[in-house]
Design goal:
Elements lengths: L2 E5 L5 H14 L7 H10 L7 E7 L2 E10 L8 E8 L8 H15 L4 E7 L2 H9 L3 E12 L15 E5 L8 H12 L12 H9 L10 E5 L2 E10 L4 E9 L8 H15 L4 E7 L3 H10 L2 E12 L2
Parallel strand pairs: 4-5, 10-11
Antiparallel strand pairs: 1-2, 2-3, 3-4, 5-12, 6-11, 6-12, 7-8, 8-9, 9-10
Amino acid sequence: MTVSLRDLRLDVRSDVEEFARVRHLALPFILWTPDAVVHHRTHTHPDARARSLVAEENGEVIGTAQLGLVHESPEPGQAYLNVYVRPDRPRRGAGGVLVRAAEEYLAAQGAAKVYSWVLDAPGNRAFAERYGYRAGRSAHFLRLDLSQNSLPPLQSPPPGVELRTAADYADDPRPLFALDAETTADEPSDVDTTLADYQAWYAETWRHPMLNHDLTTVAVVDGRPVAFTAAYRDGGNRYSTAMTGTARAFRGRGLAKLVKNDSLHRARAAGCTEAFTGNDTGNDAMLAVNKWFGYEVCATEVRYVRELG
């Protein structure tokens, strides 16, 4: 059968559900829901020129691609492209169709360099290299079984530190935006990014349908948020921390462990049985923190890059 290509139809619920399903089958370590798919496309900044593509075979969605420009980067011409094909529908040409169409579109938008995350598996890596992508740094997916593993006991915050949740900032989350901006700037990455647009952050991040404000824990000193762990939930029993960060002046005091432990206990009490997170393989400090909780590596992905032109 011939594979056809088109844009995701955001106004067709079944189409969005199939898009999310392909993502889940190909990458079960990242939480995705139909509402999250719609939110991502609806609220991504216009300067990203983002698109979501699907590859179909006989009316069935078998592949997806998410692509756009890294508009937060001070260096122009940076782009991202992540392609996922159903693992039970291999070698039908869906991946190649998606890559070629995405690169053509990104080049027309001024992209000079395209970054893509690829699972660290022989077939996936060979596919990326066949299309001219070269391997760079890597990152681990980690999983914790909350139904079986015993968490470290809850500890009282050190003197001068108070634990709150993101829900406490519902009226004005700007202090959390400032902390997120500072910690994001220090995250290991191939592309420097700067969070400077509060309204964009509010729409994309704060209003994300899976961001759980009650499970997101914040450490506060003298009324200022200084550490946090952002908690996401898929509406079921799966929970993920997408970012755990501490302000530069407060690092080395165990605050990352403190906020993450509090959030994990809250998640388990709320009925979550699986916890996921991810770390750059060179981020030894955070890997050690997650190992202390009992997280185990469940998969690895590699960051590939290709220069267009």
